Amino acid sequence: MSERLKVNFCGVEFKNPVVPASGTYGYGREYESLYPLSKLGGISVKGTTLYPRQGNPGPRVAETPAGMLNSVGLQNGGAKKFLEYELPNLLTKDTRIIANIAGSTVEECAELAALIEPSAVDMVELNISCPNVAQGGAAFGTDCTVAAAVTAAVRKELKTKPLMVKLSPNVTSITDIAKSVEAAGADALSLINTLLGMRIDIKTRRPVLKRNVGGLSGPAVFPVAVRMVWQTANAVKIPVMGMGGIATWEDAVEMMMAGASAVQVGAAIFNDPYAPVKIIDGMERWCRENNIANISEIVGTVQPW
Amino acid sequence: MYVQGSYPIIEKRAIAKGIFDMTILCPDAAALAEPGQFMQVAAEGFFLRRPISICEIDKEHGTLRIVFEVRGKGTDKISELKRGDNIDIIAPLGHGFTVLEDAKAVCVGGGIGTPPMLGIAEKYGSNAEVISGFRTAAIAILQDDFKAAGCKTTLCTDDGTAGFHGFVTEPLKKRLETDKPDIIYACGPAPMLKGIAELAKEYGVRCEVSLEQRMACGVGACLVCVCKTVKDGEQFLSHVCKDGPVFDSKEVDFT
Asked: Is the pTM above the cut of 0.90?
């Protein structure tokens, strides 16, 4: 891989700006028989909570036009399992590891951050935007004061690692939340998490999802994500990792022109497990064909009317 | 281990109303496949792939056979693919049935849960009895295939238009009373699986069931395809795609 795709994202060097999104890639184990994980810029691993979580009852998934709803509810093995079992394996993969953390209370988020701090992860992504949990989750990410409080509490525990905060699109003003989180000490932002949605089976008059509502992802949300990344990148000084419906290298380039310094690819992987690799290869080719020495040159270069 | 790719369909036909039979030439996937595993099939114009069980594996000729029912717009789209077209699959996925050596098996299929029984029944040949149940005679599929594999077949229909008039659990119970097999394999609607699991427990016979659930990734990453399981008295939300689709019936919570 050439130098063209190398990016520096809040002090962490990524060999390329493409990162599978949290919750869509597990801990990489399911995909490494297809291609070496070292192809990837990094991996944002499955959301980790302080203690193991069983998640929500099924059905947890519903197809939608150009996308899907999910209601997993942060099922995971907890911080201990992540640190002792998953992380040592991930650290051998020659790619950047972003720990994604979530908690039900501010204190829990802080405690989790303190556990992660001495580990060898490259960055921490604080999830304040999961729409599928009763406590914490989007309840943190839809109120400026609460979002700032949880960011500050985690910031205090993360003395050496960059802190990226993952924002919810289910807000009136994404820039107000972004600025609050920036002021509370975040080093970067990632957005968008899923949009809250619902499907109903008209035969049974029941919601398809057992929890009634869930998070919408896939190409359907891409224009919303581009708009929010553009607004946010223009409102804050810290870098933005853009995500939401990216499925092709063209989408990734568009997201970076909107203001994203790097991108995450999520639901597209379910349709095509090679999607992240195809996006990396496509961007590389595009840079070469357009004489772009480094992909960072295009960040935020959209020229609004 | 699994692969993803576009492979040619070398045979395709409708074997009953809304039920299609396709043979795919995919030597790398066929080499890895075991009875009871499934594949994720892309449906053009739809975001999520459709999980379809593998019906038959021919490692020598490098083919996988699927027999599936049109359940909605996605499977309808897949059914439009013709012989010679390419089909985009991820296969083989999940873990399949446990094959016992020198053993007698009973394979129980309910409706479109019958196709995955062919691959496992072939492993046992004349040591397998296949009890399959359908709503009516017109959709009673694969009987000749099971016979060709040397298996004894017991056909049941809900309406009595062919074979035994009633549910598969009745001939299964009779078999368990007279000639206990070493293992039961089953795939079909949840109430049927529950009934079979209860019989297996009552007669002390090992039993493996194949479950289905709405899926997204199919490989164990997204965690959407949950089913309730029990191990050592503790309840779990397991995943059909990776922990299954085949489970020991004692570990499935059918409630």
From this structure: yes
